[in-house]
Structures are given as C-alpha cells and as structure tokens.
Amino acid sequence: MAKKIKVGVIGAGQVSQLQHIPGAQQSPYAEVVAVADTSKARCKEAAEKFNIPNTFSDYKDLLAMDEIDAVSIALPNFLHYPVTMDALKAGKHAMCDKPMAMNQTEAKRMIDTAKKNRLVFMIGQNMRFSRENQLAKKAIESGKIGEPYHARCRLQRRNGIPRIGSWFTQKKYSGGGVLLDLGVHVLDLTLHLMGSFDVETVSGQVFSKFGRKGLGDGTWGMSERVKAKTYDVEDYATAFLRLKGGKTVILEVCWHAYLQPGHGIDICGTKGGLSTPPAKIFGEKKDIEPPIAPESAKVPLPTERLVHFIDCIVNKKKPICDPKQSLMIQKVLDAIYKSSKTGREVKIK
Ligand SMILES: NC(=O)c1ccc[n+]([C@@H]2O[C@H](COP(=O)([O-])OP(=O)(O)OC[C@H]3O[C@@H](n4cnc5c(N)ncnc54)[C@H](O)[C@@H]3O)[C@@H](O)[C@H]2O)c1
Which domains, and CATH codes, for the chain? Predict the structure, then answer.
C-alpha cells in the first residue's frame, strides 16, 4: 500500500473524541499525527487516549506542520469558516463538521478557496453515512418509490439543549440554536434522499421558549459553560420549503418541548413511500414492500465520513457530500431565520 497520508484533528471536544479521531483512525490510508485544542487538558486527554504524537494549543501551529496533508475540523460553529480557510490556504485538504458556516457568504468563500487550491473539501454530514440511510438512498435512486414529491423530516429531543451557557447556546459562537445544530442534519438528508437541492422558497419560524428560563438543559458537549446562563438562540424551529417542480418539505426540530422525543424522515413518492429510520418502503398493496435490510449485504458503501474523506483524497474520488449542496443547506438555514424575523416567505437565490 502507498505511504499513509497524515491527518491533523482541530478540536478535541466531544465530537472529535467520539467520531473525528477514531473515524480517521479507521482509515487504512491515514494516520492521525496531531491534535489541537485551546484546552490543554482536552488536547492531552485525546492525545493519550488515541496515541497521537503531537499536540498544540494553537491550531496554526498544527497547520504549520508540512507533513500534514489533511485536517478534520471539530470546533464551535463560529470557527468553521476562519479555520477551514486557514487550512485550505495552508494547502491542507479539509473536512469540517456541520453546520458549514455562520452564513452563506462564508460558505461560498470556503468552496471557492478549496476549488482554487484544488483540495478535497467536504462538510461531514454524518447522517448520510448510516447504513440505513445509504440503503434508503439506493432504493429511491433505483426507482422503488417512483418520483419523490413531498417529505416530512423531524428531529425532536427532550431536555436536549447542549449545556445552557456553553458556546452552543450563545448566538455569537453558534450562529443559532437547534436549527443549526439538528435542523442541518435532517434537512441535508431529506434533500439528499429526494435527489433535489433546488430549493426555491422558504417559510419558517423559530421559537425560544425554554433555554432562557433554564429549562431543557442537556449534557452534550465538553466545552465549559462560558457564561453560566446565557441563552439567546432558538430551541424549536419549523419550516416549509418549496423545491423546483412543485416538490415540498416540512421540517420540525427541537432541543426541548413537551413532546415525545424521536426522529424520522418520510418521503412520499408516486409509486411508494419511504420512512427512515428504520428504513422501510410502503407500497400500494402491501404495507411494507419491500423491506430494505436484506439487500444490505450486497451494497458496498462508505459508512464512516472520515474514512470516505480520506478515500477521496487518496483515490481521487468526489465526496458524497458535495459542498455545493451544503451551501444550499446554509442558504435555507439563513432563509428560515430571515423568514422567522420578517414573517414572510423568502426566495432563495
Ligand atoms: N456531526 C455530528 O453529529 C455532530 C455532533 C455534535 C457536534 N457536531 C459539531 O461539531 C462541532 C464541535 O462540537 P462538539 O460537540 O465537539 O463541541 P465541544 O464543545 O465538545 O468541543 C469543541 C472543542 O473546541 C475547542 N476549541 C474552542 N476554540 C478553539 C480554538 N480556537 N482552537 C482549538 N480548539 C478550540 C474547545 O476547547 C472544545 O474542546 C460543532 O460545530 C458541532 O455543531 C457535530
């Protein structure tokens, strides 16, 4: 096998330790040689746990390591844009976690810079990599439900605010609340399954009913609570999207509400319907026709986003998560906030 590429991981918090570092270490083509985090304690913890030789408290020192080919970025949202830009300008391939950026202007610049420097760049939309969802996509692509015309997607938590007072609940660091945290996941997966990112108009509303009162607090995230009780983001978001050709999508996401937690995507097609998870197809005559699972053994698909990202670099493949699609998701997120503020439908340009 060719020489392994060297990967640096920027951010040593929860998603880095749960997914980015172990994900990259699953790749047969890569080794994780450095980790950076402003928290020396978390950096040390990650380096010891995953046997990583170099640690930095300033990510720019990691980027200065010539031997690093690629970076994986697992930082608070406000840092996605500047750190990805620094990485791309330093000639490193980059995978950044969701949401892509704080707004579409930043997102567009990230794409342009990756293109200019001929580097692999993707947003790690991990829901696309679940086996269930990969098979659902295959089933829709093979025409099993006919033409998708409408979808409903929801991701509901109860007591799921990621630590009130941490960067997640402060707009200047997160850019927004549950919409950017969870909405981005189900929206991306829904449009991916529908096979259309041609969103034309968006109407939406966000609500902030619980976090401000200290209710709905959850446990996700390793960062400190920056300001003990600061909460200026939404804990519920809903939206209605119109796509080219008259297709529509309804979105419902919450960190906390007095509702049954859960998540799911339902795609209505002209010949059948598909719901996931668990991925099932509903047909005209039988209730479930056919279940997707038995096909799984035959379909070789990437199930880990870091492995896929590294495979794209080494074997010169196109990432499954096309950054232009991530830009469209960012535009939709921006439009939902605008619509909520103005009380009007927003056209996507
Ligand atoms: N794809 C997913 O399923 C998923 C799940 C959770 C979080 N995320 C995303 O991953 C990102 C990180 O989330 P998390 O849950 O790991 O948060 P976290 O708070 O647990 O970790 C963030 C880390 O970044 C470090 N950091 C902050 N500023 C830094 C800087 N300037 N340089 C280096 N390190 C710095 C913090 O010290 C912390 O260790 C967020 O954008 C979040 O939206 C994605």
Answer: 5-123 (3.40.50.720), 130-301 (3.30.360.10)
Residue 298 contacts by C-beta under 8 Å, 6 or more apart in sequence?
none
With cut-offs at 50, 70 and 90, classify the pLDDT of residue 1.
low
Confidence of residue 187 (pLDDT cuts 50, 70, 90): very high
Ligand 1 pocket test: which of 9, 14, 125, 305 has the largest number of ligand atoms within 8 Å of its C-beta? 14
Residue 170 CA to ligand 1 centre (angstroms): 14
300 pLDDT more than 90: no
225-267 confidence digits (pLDDT tens) = 877 789 999 999 999 999 999 999 999 999 999 999 999 999 9
Q: What is the pLDDT of residue 290?
A: 53
Q: Which long-range contacts (CB under 8 A, 24 or more apart) does 243-248 make?
A: 243/191, 243/194, 243/196, 243/198, 243/199, 243/200, 244/196, 244/198, 244/200, 245/196, 245/198, 246/149, 247/148, 247/149, 247/150, 247/151, 247/194, 247/196, 248/149, 248/150, 248/151
Q: How far is the CA of 213 from the centre of ligand 1 (A)?
A: 25
Tell which atom from ligand 1 comes closest to the C-alpha of 180: 43
Ligand 1 atom with the shortest distance to the CA of 162: 15
Q: What is the pTM assigned to this prediction? A: 0.95
Residue nearest to atom 22 of ligand 1 (CA): 13
Q: How far is the CA of 103 from the centre of ligand 1 (A)?
A: 18
